[in-house]
Each structure stands twice: as C-alpha cells, then as structure tokens.
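subagent[fold] <- orchestrator: predict structure for attached chain, return tokens only, no commentary.
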Amino acid sequence: MKKKNLFGLTLEELETELSPLPKFRAKQIAAWIYQRGVTSFDEMNDLSKNLRGELAEKYFVQLPQLVKQLDSTDNLTTKFLLKFDDGATVETVLMRHDYGNSICISSQVGCAMGCKFCASTLKGLDRNLTAGEMLGEIIFVQNFLRVVNQKVDTLVIMGTGEPLVNFDNVIKMLRLLHKDYTLGLSYRKVTISTCGIVPAIRRLIDEQIPVTLSISLHAPTNKLRSEIMPINSAFNLKEVLKAGAEYAEVTGRRVTYEYILLGGVNDTEEHARQLAKILDGQLANVNLIPVNPVIERNFKPPTHNASQKFFHFLLTHGINVTIRKEMGADVNAACGQLRANS
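subagent[fold] -> orchestrator:
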C-alpha cells in the first residue's frame, strides 16, 4: 500500500483521513506538523507508541527538501532552492527587515506569463504548486528560523509563477495558514502579487480576505507594456487599473503598483508623468524596483539619478511612492535566477 503524505491537509481533511480515530488526535497531529514543524511520528510524544507505529505504516510527513542555500553578505537575505517529491524545484526567499522576517514564496514551477525582463519565465511553466507545497515553503522557513527563536512575520506570494493563475490552491493555502492550528498568520500580513489577471482579481474580491494586492504595471502606456509584458494583450492598462480600483474600494486597502525601472526603457521623466496621470485618484502606492539584471535578458538597471528623478516626480505629483531597497543582489535575488542556473 502506498503511503500518503499528511502535510498540507486541513484539520477537517485530517479528521476524515484518520477516522475512526477521535477528532482530537487530528488536532494533535496538525499541531505537531504545522506549529512545531515535526516530520517524524516518533517525535509526537503525546501519541501512544502503538499509534505512532500504526501511523508510520500508512502515512508520512514530508516538507520540500533543501537543494541549495545562498546567504547575502549582509546576512539580510537567504535564498533557498527547494525540491518536491517529483523533483520539481522552486525558490523561496527569506528577507530580514527591521519590522520582522518576510518570506517570498513561489506559486508555480516556472511561469508562462513571458515578461521580457524576468528570469522566472525562461524555462516556461511546468505545473502549479499545490496548497500543501506552498505551505511547505513557509513551514520550511519557519523551521529554519525556529533555531534562532524567530518566526515568519509577513508573507509575499511574489516568487516564481503567477499566483492568480493558481487561484484555488493559493486561496486554500492562505486559509490553512490562517488557522490557529497552523501559524495563525493574519491575512493583513499577506501580499499577493499579480501581473494583472483581471477576472481573478475580481474573484479575490469575492473571497473577502483582506490581503494586500500588488499589481505589476511596469509601463505607463499600453504600447510599452505590451512590448515587455505579453499579458497586456489580454488585460490592458485600463482594465487592470479598473480592477485595482474596485479592489481598493471594496476592501478599503491600498493597492500596490509595482514598477520595475528598466534603464533607458521606462525610466524617463515622461514615463513618470504618464504614470502619475493614469494613477491619479487611485487608492494606491507605487513601488519602484530597479531591475536585477538577468544574463539571459538585455535590460540594465536605471542610473541612480534616473531613479531619483522618477521617484521625486511621482512624489511631488501626489503619488505615494517608495523605492524598493535592494536586497540579495549577491544571491541572484531576481525571481527564477537560482533555479534557471541549477
């Protein structure tokens, strides 16, 4: 009989799977797996020895396995290449901020969106990650931090893949992560990043979970956005901004618009003027991101002067704007670089 992995099951699913055991046993096992990061039944010492043996005959608990770990020289960023049962690998990044530990997880193995500046899409899309696999990325990092008496404080689903294409699994993972028998992570400490899948943004509104929505714009005109982001041919700027405005109106939460600055491509004062115009009146923040160069792509970062001029133009024209602090450049920080080079 093939053993079954219990990791990734909800409490209700565990209760059903482990029936006719009493329901409280499922809650005990869930706490061991999700809160304490235990993968061996032998360590679950509030279960009888006989029960532990019976469970081990039918089940196992498995997290993704570490393939490679890279630590930045400033010790603020750690990048993990993790492998799942089928050999598929994804990247997960731990970023240490003064406000706590943030992790960036992947939602797919590869990506089909085809953004011209991104390493994630170099090998195309292999498959979606399951809810359990995404949760596995989080618990892996939680276990890593537990050694130094720290924990995961915030989550961004902004790694490899388009989360809203893998909508059902992402939502299942978030609801499981929110439960008190897992990490009890507040939805308000979660950010979902999308390149602008408009129907899925509206589905996210209907879910009524107050996560932060981050939308990748990266260009202030349809012509330029279509050149660097093929998704714009399906959902153009007008549609994406309308969906963003609806999200902000219904949830009361500011939408973050990500804008990767590509040297000589989208970083001029005219581009800043166009961006300020299309965002006028939006309940939104703009996050400027100087591009991390990818060998296989031909884009270069903006000059410091260009970045500052772009930032100050938006700021003086009423746009809430930040420039993302560069973290982990020496550990291939751009999504997909570590996997692409492995």
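orchestrator: received. Logging for downstream: The first helix runs from residue 11 to 18. The longest strand covers residues 89-97.
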